[in-house]
Design brief:
The chain is an alpha/beta fold. It is built from 11 helices and 12 strands. The strands form 2 sheets. The chain has a 7-stranded parallel sheet with strand order 8-7-6-9-10-11-12, sandwiched between helices. The chain is globular and about 60 Å long. The two termini are 23 Å apart.
């Protein structure tokens, strides 16, 4: 199996489990999977990819011509694979059933706490010897209404932490509700997304990216939220229409935004761009807002 776009932490994890007894030989490459790099799969039965490698029809056809039969995603989402073409070409596509759901859920709650209590701003101030508290006013999570969009394992655990741990009123929207689990975790379902957005002080996104959920947060749905709402996304970047998000931020409608993902992150995330020009004007604009906190798709990254 050839493992594409690998980082050192990936290599460490694979080497740890591959003691020579699993019967799989790994080849590691740091480059992204593209039509021009697919040749690296020559002599391999399987290709292992991550969230930002695009397995489109062209790439799949090239891989098939090289004798590859398996596409292995080391992530839960599979929106970056053209499943229709993969099926026609006879590929078997597998993915991680779930990351450690606690990893992402805890990170989402931490991101909420960061943008609400402004840990990041306080840290930078104190590093410079500035101990003023002006501009660091937050609010208590206890008693606030948190809306969870998507109640898979991660969404449920995020809701549980906020309900049981912080005393939040947690509501959720999912077209396929699991009422028994929701009751156990202290979560109540609402009938529509609009109802959730109209009630929530904080909205946390935990749904997969597909045709139905792409830009689920857009100009219309942002207009359905409370003024001053906190929006957090640790799922997939394209759940949010970035242009609409910027517009809502510029109008002052949003209280704060926390993003661990971005819809065009593949050009920048998981690389060091500190000495490069970022050409994505929307991304640069997002980074310029005082009330936007962005991390580089790290919610999954724990030793669990």
């Amino acid at each position: 199996m050839v493992i594409i776009c690998i980082k050192q932490y990936d290599r460490d994890s694979f080497d740890k489990v591959n003691s020579g007894t699993c019967g799989i030989e790994f080849s590691y490459f740091e480059v992204k999977l593209e039509p021009t790099t697919a040749v690296l799969a020559t002599g391999h039965e399987a290709v292992c990819i991550f969230v930002n490698e695009q397995c489109d029809s062209e790439v799949l056809a090239r891989l098939k011509s090289l004798g590859v039969n398996y596409i292995v995603l080391r992530c839960a989402g599979f929106n970056n694979v053209n499943l229709s073409t993969a099926s026609k070409l006879g590929f078997k596509v597998v993915h991680v059933p779930a990351y450690s759901p606690e990893s992402v859920a805890e990170f989402a709650v931490g991101m909420i706490m960061t943008v609400v209590r402004k840990y990041h701003k306080a840290y930078l101030r104190v590093r410079e010897g500035n101990f003023l508290l002006d501009g660091l006013l937050g609010f208590n999570l206890n008693g606030k209404t948190v809306g969870i969009v998507g109640t898979g394992k991660i969404g449920f655990l995020t809701g549980k932490i906020l309900s049981k741990g912080f005393g939040c009123n947690v509501i959720a929207y999912d077209p396929y509700p699991n009422t028994d689990a929701a009751a156990e975790y202290g979560i109540s379902y609402v009938e529509t997304l609009e109802e959730l957005l109209g009630q929530a002080d904080i909205v946390s996104l935990h749904c997969p990216l597909n045709d139905e959920t792409k830009y689920i947060i857009n100009e219309k749905t942002l207009g359905q939220t409370k003024k001053g709402v906190i929006l957090v996304n640790t799922s997939r970047g394209a759940l949010i229409d970035t242009g609409a998000l910027i517009k809502a931020l510029k109008s002052g409608h949003l209280g704060a935004v926390g993003l661990d993902v971005y819809e065009k992150e593949s050009s920048y995330f998981f690389t060091n761009s500190s000495s490069k020009i970022i050409y994505d004007d929307n991304f640069v604009r997002l980074l310029s807002f005082y009330n936007v906190f962005v991390s580089g798709h790290q919610a999954f990254l724990t030793d669990a």
